[in-house]
Every structure is written in structure tokens, then in C-alpha cells.
Amino acid sequence: MTEYKGIKGGKVQNFDTxxxxxxxxxxxxxxxxxxxxxxxxxLTSAWASGGNLNTARNRLGGAGTQTxxxxxxxxxxxxxxxxxxxxxxxxTEVNDLNTARRTMSMTGTQTDSIIAGGYNxxxxxxxxxxxxxTxxSETTDINTARRGARGSxxxxxxxxxxxxxxxxxxxxxELxxxTxxTEVNDLNTGRGNGAGSNAGTSTEAxxxxxxxxxxxxxxxxxxxxTxxxEVNDLNTARADLAGAGTYTSMLAFGGETPPVTAVxxxxxxTxxSExxDLNTARSALGGSGAxxxxxxxxxxxxxxxxxxxxxxxKPTFTVKxxxxx
Length: 325
Known about the structure:
Blueprint: H1 4-8, E1 13-15, E2 27-30, E3 35-42, E4 47-49, E5 61-64, E6 69-72, E7 83-86, E8 91-94, E9 105-108, E10 113-116, E11 128-131, E12 136-139, E13 150-153, E14 158-163, E15 170-176, E16 181-183, E17 195-196, E18 205-208, E19 211-212, E20 215-216, E21 220-223, E22 228-231, E23 242-245, E24 250-253, E25 264-267, E26 272-275, E27 286-288, E28 294-298, E29 309-313, E30 317-321
């Protein structure tokens, strides 16, 4: 008779409750219920089409949640200040940025966001703007003009980190207190155009992937309010990807390896696991979302600039009790 251990390479495990994320076909014993249980197949797909942006573009900023997102700036191919809001089904154009730019940092919510740095088509900029839900206002510049940086936090307290330029790729990190920027401890690995936890805070952040000089990186680092620590790498090294979520619950999607990819990975606070791919492979896209369970992907570049939007919902699954007859 064939045994479970011979098929799956291990014995049936005992758990007080059902495990958080069992693989399809995994069998375990629930000690509380006194049942032998199995994970059935996934019930829903992850990425679904949403309403298109009004302006197709790449290297744009994004913040907010899946149903209340903001997208700003980017390249059409020229740098733009276009800003749009998403309500869960469609995008609406609102007031533009004061300084058109692309490849900048953006973080916050649909009503409270901050954009820092970027490239205006001629030079890197140090310009910073905050969004109050209606319009953009210029505020104190960052210390180092740069592009390819990422951020975490709000308009009153945020962290800005990394860059693709000035070259070589750097680990520059600056902290915003609502009034001024202060240089703090650098990343361990300098790079730019990675994915940041744009729903995080100024004291808890995550950066993954990016260009480390000329190398596509899988490196992931976590910020604890004082310094950066290296943690587990992405499964697929890449740059120009988007991120959504926090330093303990983040989604990283798209980018280029090269070539352009649709790969999606989920972070649980300890490690990355591969999940359902985007429907359309693309790089230099925008992203928003509060965690690794709900997120939004928009814009970017596949074979041309795209306005496509995709909505992520963590796949659900059923657990069944095994009975004998």
C-alpha cells in the first residue's frame, strides 16, 4: 500500500488549528477538532482587470489602496504631471503635479501623499510635493536630487531610500519629519528602481529588487527606524517592479529580469513565495495596496506604454475534512 510519506516526502503533521497557507493537497491532523484535513484547490484567480488609466504611461508613482488609489507623474514618453484617482472601478483626472517628473518616490494614501525626487526629462530633481486630497503643494527639497528612489510613510513622516542616479546606484536614505529632511543610515546594498512598502511607515519599511549598478537584484532589506538589515531575497531577481503593502505583508509584481515579466511574489514578514502572475507582463508600473491580500497594478510598459489596471485579491481555498466509510 502506498503511504502519504512516500508520496509527499513527510509524515502527516499535527496542528492545534489549520495551518495558515497549506499547499494544495497537503494533509494534516487538527488536534482541536480531532479531524484529518486536506487543502482543496484554489477557488478564485488573483489578478482581475480593472478600469484603465486615462493616460497611458510608465515610471509613474502610486499610493493608496486597491479601491482608493492615486497615480501621479510618469513618462508618456515625456515627463508628465498628470494625477488620477481610482475609486475601485475607474480613474478620474484631478490636479497635476507642479513639477512634471518620472521615476520618483511616492507613498501615502489617496488623500495624504508625498512625492520626492525624480527626473524631469533633463535633470534629476530634489523637489518634494505633498497631496491633500485636492491639490499638490511644494515643500522642502530632499538633500540629494535623485531618481529611482522609493518611499514609505505619509506627508508628515516618511522615509526616502535608494536611487538609480546619481550613479553608481546608491543606498541614500533620508527621513522626513514634516518640516525637513535628515540623512540617516544607508541601505547595505545601493540600488534603484526596486519595490518599496509604500503602505508602510517612516519607522518600518521594506525594499526589494532593483538595479545594483548593472546587476538585477533579488536583495531585500528591512528598516527598523534606525538601520537597514538584509532579510530573505526575492525568488526572481528583477528591477522596475512595483510593490504594495507593509514591511510584514507586501506584494511585489512585474518588472524586468530581463525580459519584461509578470511574476508576482508575496512577503509574509519572513520570506517571499511565488504567487499568481499578472495577466499582462510589464515593467516600470505603478502599484498600491495595504497588504499582500489586496493590491492594484497600473500603467507601465510591455511593448508600449499601457493604461491597463489589474486588481489583486489573494486567492482563497477550501479545507475539507477527510472521512472514512
